[in-house]
Amino acid sequence: MTSFLNKNRPPVFCPGCTHDRITKGLDKTMVDLGFRADNTVIVTDIGCSGLFDTFFNVHALHGVHGRALTYAAGLKLADPSLNVIVTMGDGGLGIGGAHVLAACRKNLDLTLIILNNFNFGMTGGQYSATTPTDAIVGSEFLNQAEIPIDICRVAKAAGATYVSRISGHDAGLSDELGRAIQHKGFSVVETLGMCTGRYTKKNQLTPKVIDSMIEEMPREGGVVEENMRPEYGERYRALAEEKGKFPEPLIIEKTYELKDPKRQEMVILGSAGMRIVTAGDIVCYAGIAAGLNASIKNDYNITVLRGQSVSEILLSPEKITYTGLESPAVVLALSDEGVQRRQKIFANLSADTFVLKEASVTIPDTPAQVEEIDFKPLKIRKPDWALASLGILAKKELVITRDMLESALKSRFNDKVYNLAMETINKVA
Amino acid sequence: MALAFMEGNEAVARGAMAAGCNFFAGYPITPATTIFNNMLKMLPPKGGICVQGEDEIASMGYCIGAAMAGKKVLTATSGPGISLYSEHISFAIGSEIPMVIADVQRLGPSTGSATRGADSDIQFLRWGSTSGVPVIVLAPKDVRDCYWLTVQAFNYAERFRCPVFIASNKEIGMTKESFDLDAVQLPELMERTQFKGEAFLPFEAEPDKAPPFLPIGGKTLVRQTSSTHGPDGYITIDPNTIADCQERLRKKIHAHREEISLVEENMVPGTDTLVISYGITSRAVEDAAAALAEKGRPVSTLSLKTLWPVPEQVLIRAAERFSRIVVIEMNLGQYVNDIRRILQGKQVDFYGQMNGVLIPPVKIMEAIEND
Ligand code: SF4
């Protein structure tokens, strides 16, 4: 291939625009590297730099402002054999900052060419993330109150493995782009250039001035030794490969028949750390093993280690439709936090409802039958209260039976944990 | 007899796997996070890819890139995330990028309540893009629906080359239920049509169809763009080309809307009232209908699984013989106006609730009895 440039769509940049040189420079790089069009993709976003994809006869994806790196990552992850080159202006750099940082941290094998011309060319020369404080741009005085970003410093700090800065007018541009593209990992090349249509009308910027700007900035030498590490895609695939086992769905066999299956609702009111959700699950397993339908909803604090933990469980021989509880048969009141969370239900419980209340817990007045249990003298620790309560229910044949409970525990736990659980249950049974 | 026991979010993930999904990118957000967690366990053993974006915008961007490389992609989020997805939803709609987006809705507006359910986003999903181009939105009512509707969503995404939304709800996504997994009949899988001809133009298609697909990275060069384009995938300002493209985007879904009309109905002879609902609310409606039948005041019910495009003909046919329609929604009325539009001339009453909890059957009974 002697050129990838699309003869039908020649570059349309303003005369003197550095983008034009970079277009040709990138073309030469791809020719020099012996690229194939069919495994190369140019990804662009918005602005004059976003026209790049149209000038080349390679695969192209042109998207939303600042997001080019995200499409590039998706493409590269999906097809690691692709050469993925991203062009982005200083506008895209600013709006897509989070994506630049993430790309640096990930180190996916992509090349980002930043076309920094110090302003938004396409929309009228407004200031961008790289506009010098003393520049005269189309944003009145706003740039004078900010400082420009040095993206090379940022990229290095964020973990990029290749960072360089070069003038778009440098004779070595093609070679530099080639080094960046050949680097395995995420490489950033910041090119500095002139927007003749906007920026240079009011600001003294020539290739010479750009050279002296680069002189004055810290030197960027390409490979960033201290950041060197495996490429993200390879690392990802190696880690993913160790995950060999597909998690099959949990299927619970019906193992016995209930004499008189009824719809049963149950609420467990507890706190974080009391294994409320586990106890709720066990009730559901027990119900399903007895041929019932089951549903469970859990309500816990977003700070999971503190606050209430409430489980609402429904067992029914019929299909379960509405999953809100209407008249619970059983309420386990195991912590004040949990009780406070569902305070309102107590006054409306029916006289048939069985409330099991731990001795330390206070509950509002209720017409339900209340039984108190003190787990302390039984030497049952708080994290086992919910489980022990299930033992009490099984003994009374409320919601679950002893058989149901035992088989549910067996299906949920390994032998060791099962034996410990049965020890707890036997303390109350 | 054996029953599976899982939450709606796991069922979405299992549906996606059954549909051949091989790429997921997402960002943690309650109550959708467990879809991500499940995909992270399920995809790697099957050779698929599952990654976390740096934010929701990036997650969608990863999905767009992967879909254009030929992957079948899923992402999942909730209200605050769907807001951030919006710019890329527009991209996927306008540039015909197949993907499935699960929105496990929570109470809005804004950050709202992370752990409280509501059907907050029904209008957002339809209109949360720049263009007004039709989209496909499916609403599961239970865990079983989460499973098979996700497969259906992938089929639609592939066939119509568009994003397809699963409008789930915290109350389904994070509620575990038993169901007979083996008895679920999954729809036959559909894949996007691959281009077979000579000269490939990435957006050349029949006037009411999606264009045949070729992946970025294949032998034939592919162009994808978020900008207004003609069949060749280059920016155009030609009004006729633009008009044709816009019309096709509309028609490719609109002309096939009857094939996308998924509903569940329970027509009871001799009833004068039809109760229309969708999602989790349909379950309380079933209970309310059963209780009313017991009281000697039976009603018929229609539960919509396809919300967008509005299943117009189904609604017209179903409502024909009823003098009164009652619409129940877990919001303050996001869909009822479309039903009023379609069933003009009928008495359409509405009950909605937006307080973070499920609408109980008694409220629905009251709404039905208060005519
Ligand atoms: S406006 Fe500036 S960046 Fe855009 S083409 Fe003209 S000179 Fe180049």
Explain what you see.
The complex is a heterodimer of chains A (429) and B (371). In chain A, 35% of the residues lie in helices and 18% in strands. Chain A has 429 residues and is of the alpha/beta class. In chain A, strand 5, helix 7 and strand 6 form a beta-alpha-beta unit. In chain A, helix 1 crosses helix 7 (173-182). With 371 residues, chain B is an alpha/beta fold. In chain B, the strands form three sheets. In chain B, strands 3-2-4-5-7-6-13 form a seven-stranded mixed β-sheet, sandwiched between helices. Chain B has a five-stranded mixed β-sheet with strand order 10-12-11-14-15, sandwiched between helices. Chain B has a two-stranded antiparallel sheet with strand order 1-8. Chain B starts with a strand and ends with a helix. Chain B is globular, with a radius of gyration of 21 Å. Classes of the chains: A alpha/beta (429), B alpha/beta (371). The interface between A and B is large, with 68 and 73 residues. Strand 2 of chain A pairs parallel with strand 9 (223-225) of chain B, so a sheet runs across the interface. Bound molecules: iron/sulfur cluster.
